[in-house]
Amino acid sequence: MSSKNAEGMTPLMLAAEQGNYHVMEMLFENNAEQDVRDEEGKICLHLATQGGHKLCVALCLTNGHDVNAKDEGGNTALHLASLGGYQRIVDCLLAEPTVENIRNKAGYQPDEMAMDQEVRTRIHNGMDTAEKNRWTVAWINRQTPEEEWGISR
Q1: What is the pTM of this model?
Q2: Which of 68, 81, 86, 122 has fewest C-beta within 10 Å?
Protein backbone atom coordinates (compact mmCIF):
# COMPACT_ATOMS: atom_id res chain seq x y z
CA MET A 1 0.00 0.00 0.00
CA SER A 2 2.93 2.32 -0.49
CA SER A 3 2.63 2.81 -4.26
CA LYS A 4 2.80 6.45 -5.29
CA ASN A 5 1.16 8.48 -8.02
CA ALA A 6 3.02 10.96 -10.27
CA GLU A 7 3.04 13.59 -7.48
CA GLY A 8 4.58 11.13 -5.04
CA MET A 9 1.37 10.58 -3.09
CA THR A 10 0.22 7.28 -1.60
CA PRO A 11 -3.42 6.21 -1.15
CA LEU A 12 -3.18 7.25 2.51
CA MET A 13 -1.93 10.70 1.54
CA LEU A 14 -4.70 11.13 -1.03
CA ALA A 15 -7.31 10.13 1.53
CA ALA A 16 -5.86 12.64 4.03
CA GLU A 17 -5.83 15.43 1.45
CA GLN A 18 -9.43 14.72 0.46
CA GLY A 19 -10.62 14.30 4.06
CA ASN A 20 -11.72 10.72 3.58
CA TYR A 21 -11.66 9.56 7.20
CA HIS A 22 -13.07 6.07 6.57
CA VAL A 23 -10.54 5.26 3.86
CA MET A 24 -7.73 6.52 6.09
CA GLU A 25 -8.99 4.41 8.96
CA MET A 26 -9.04 1.30 6.74
CA LEU A 27 -5.54 2.03 5.43
CA PHE A 28 -4.16 2.53 8.96
CA GLU A 29 -5.78 -0.76 10.04
CA ASN A 30 -4.02 -2.46 7.13
CA ASN A 31 -0.64 -1.00 8.11
CA ALA A 32 -0.30 1.54 5.32
CA GLU A 33 3.12 3.13 5.25
CA GLN A 34 2.94 6.40 7.20
CA ASP A 35 6.39 7.93 6.85
CA VAL A 36 6.05 8.73 3.15
CA ARG A 37 6.49 12.35 2.07
CA ASP A 38 5.22 14.04 -1.08
CA GLU A 39 7.33 16.25 -3.35
CA GLU A 40 6.97 19.16 -0.88
CA GLY A 41 8.03 17.04 2.08
CA LYS A 42 4.51 16.82 3.49
CA ILE A 43 3.19 13.81 5.39
CA CYS A 44 -0.47 12.85 5.84
CA LEU A 45 -0.80 15.09 8.89
CA HIS A 46 0.20 18.13 6.81
CA LEU A 47 -2.21 17.23 4.01
CA ALA A 48 -5.17 16.68 6.34
CA THR A 49 -4.38 19.95 8.12
CA GLN A 50 -4.11 21.95 4.90
CA GLY A 51 -7.50 20.64 3.84
CA GLY A 52 -9.09 21.57 7.17
CA HIS A 53 -10.03 17.95 7.93
CA LYS A 54 -10.05 17.83 11.75
CA LEU A 55 -11.09 14.18 12.10
CA CYS A 56 -8.34 13.13 9.71
CA VAL A 57 -5.81 15.22 11.66
CA ALA A 58 -6.91 13.50 14.90
CA LEU A 59 -6.65 10.10 13.19
CA CYS A 60 -3.09 10.87 12.07
CA LEU A 61 -2.12 11.91 15.59
CA THR A 62 -3.67 8.81 17.21
CA ASN A 63 -1.73 6.69 14.72
CA GLY A 64 1.59 8.15 15.77
CA HIS A 65 2.27 11.03 13.40
CA ASP A 66 4.77 13.51 14.80
CA VAL A 67 2.95 16.76 15.58
CA ASN A 68 6.24 18.62 14.99
CA ALA A 69 7.10 17.04 11.61
CA LYS A 70 8.30 19.67 9.14
CA ASP A 71 7.74 19.93 5.40
CA GLU A 72 10.38 21.29 2.97
CA GLY A 73 9.58 24.85 4.07
CA GLY A 74 10.03 23.95 7.73
CA ASN A 75 6.29 24.22 8.35
CA THR A 76 4.63 22.02 10.95
CA ALA A 77 0.94 21.16 10.95
CA LEU A 78 0.48 24.02 13.42
CA HIS A 79 1.90 26.48 10.86
CA LEU A 80 -0.52 25.17 8.22
CA ALA A 81 -3.54 25.23 10.55
CA SER A 82 -2.64 28.77 11.57
CA LEU A 83 -2.31 29.94 7.99
CA GLY A 84 -5.61 28.29 7.05
CA GLY A 85 -7.44 29.76 10.04
CA TYR A 86 -8.56 26.32 11.24
CA GLN A 87 -9.32 27.03 14.91
CA ARG A 88 -10.47 23.51 15.78
CA ILE A 89 -7.40 21.94 14.21
CA VAL A 90 -5.21 24.43 16.07
CA ASP A 91 -6.90 23.32 19.31
CA CYS A 92 -6.40 19.65 18.38
CA LEU A 93 -2.69 20.18 17.67
CA LEU A 94 -2.16 22.25 20.82
CA ALA A 95 -3.66 19.41 22.87
CA GLU A 96 -0.69 17.24 21.89
CA PRO A 97 1.77 17.23 24.82
CA THR A 98 4.82 17.36 22.55
CA VAL A 99 3.76 20.29 20.34
CA GLU A 100 6.51 22.89 19.92
CA ASN A 101 6.59 26.50 18.82
CA ILE A 102 9.01 26.03 15.90
CA ARG A 103 10.16 28.65 13.40
CA ASN A 104 9.89 27.62 9.76
CA LYS A 105 12.66 28.26 7.21
CA ALA A 106 11.25 31.74 6.54
CA GLY A 107 11.64 32.50 10.26
CA TYR A 108 7.96 32.49 11.23
CA GLN A 109 6.38 30.81 14.24
CA PRO A 110 2.85 29.42 13.79
CA ASP A 111 1.11 32.33 15.51
CA GLU A 112 2.94 34.81 13.29
CA MET A 113 1.40 33.19 10.19
CA ALA A 114 -2.18 33.48 11.41
CA MET A 115 -4.39 35.81 9.40
CA ASP A 116 -7.13 35.43 12.02
CA GLN A 117 -6.63 37.15 15.39
CA GLU A 118 -8.55 34.41 17.23
CA VAL A 119 -6.21 31.75 15.83
CA ARG A 120 -3.18 33.86 16.73
CA THR A 121 -4.44 34.25 20.30
CA ARG A 122 -5.28 30.55 20.63
CA ILE A 123 -1.79 29.55 19.53
CA HIS A 124 -0.09 32.11 21.74
CA ASN A 125 -2.14 31.10 24.79
CA GLY A 126 -1.96 27.41 23.92
CA MET A 127 1.83 27.44 23.72
CA ASP A 128 1.97 29.11 27.14
CA THR A 129 -0.31 26.38 28.50
CA ALA A 130 1.76 23.63 26.85
CA GLU A 131 4.92 25.01 28.46
CA LYS A 132 3.20 25.19 31.88
CA ASN A 133 2.01 21.60 31.46
CA ARG A 134 5.56 20.44 30.71
CA TRP A 135 6.82 22.11 33.90
CA THR A 136 3.94 20.58 35.90
CA VAL A 137 4.71 17.07 34.62
CA ALA A 138 8.39 17.57 35.37
CA TRP A 139 7.62 18.78 38.90
CA ILE A 140 5.33 15.81 39.55
CA ASN A 141 8.14 13.52 38.39
CA ARG A 142 10.61 15.60 40.44
CA GLN A 143 12.72 16.33 37.40
CA THR A 144 13.60 19.56 35.73
CA PRO A 145 12.18 19.86 32.21
CA GLU A 146 15.75 19.56 30.94
CA GLU A 147 16.10 16.18 32.68
CA GLU A 148 12.63 15.12 31.53
CA TRP A 149 13.49 15.81 27.89
CA GLY A 150 17.13 14.75 28.05
CA ILE A 151 18.53 18.23 27.36
CA SER A 152 22.06 18.86 28.54
CA ARG A 153 23.11 22.31 29.68
Answers
A1: 0.80
A2: 68
